[in-house]
Amino acid sequence: MRRVEQVMGFPVSLRVDDEGVPEEAGDAVFGWLRQVDARFSPFRPDSEVSRLGRGELARHELSEELAEVLDLCEHYRIATGGAFDVRLPGRGLDPCAVVKGWSVQRAAELLRSAGARSFVINAGGDVVASGGPWRVGVRHPEHADRLCTVLELTDGAVATSARYERGDHILDARTGRPATGLLSMTVLAPTLTEADSVATAAYAMGVEGVGWAASLAGCGVFAVDGDGQVLRTEGFPVVRESPLAA
Fold this sequence. Notes:
Layout: E1 2-7, E2 10-16, H1 23-40, H2 48-53, H3 64-79, E3 87-88, E4 92-93, H4 96-113, E5 119-123, E6 126-130, E7 134-139, E8 147-153, E9 156-162, E10 171-172, E11 177-178, E12 182-189, H5 192-205, H6 208-214, E13 220-225, E14 230-232, E15 238-241
Antiparallel strand pairs: 1-2, 2-5, 3-4, 5-6, 6-9, 7-8, 8-15, 9-12, 10-11, 12-13, 13-14
Helix pairs in contact: 1-4, 4-5, 5-6
């Protein structure tokens, strides 16, 4: 099975190498992601997130899924000493940094329940995979046509946070200003829920986020600091590493 669709503002590609997995499994994946976009997007005025942000919903009125996402957001706010926060003055409630990885991980679980064992989902550059091994390239933080590393992924997930796609969209909530200190932060973790959330939270912390992310059980880190220096945890499954110099 091979499918690509535009969902939540970025391309999502799905590849399943198992025989006999029905096309309906792919329909379920993209149907779920479209549902998440409709319910959790802060850019849709009728979404559950927007309604909560405007004070139209009380905590006890929230769906189980949104309550779970908000609990994850609060976990990372506390864990980063407030550097990561989905509630920023003047910006409203925006849990996208957690919703993306969480929703794509759930999509992977839908595939597994349909019998898929060898597959990969790439959601705007963040990847969850099973079986394989799969090779995943990490974009160079300053050159769109180059990779800074290629890693091997079997069962797990990898996510990267950087400013090259959306500019200074990640803020250090302790200061209210764009996060500084890192050019990119790539995190390898057992699930995309964790990989994506930790990558964003660590990027918001700046250089101190590298050590914090590396200290988390099951997480591997490949980061590039503001001077172009690579900071990589021992055992990060690099297949090929490219020089960062121009």
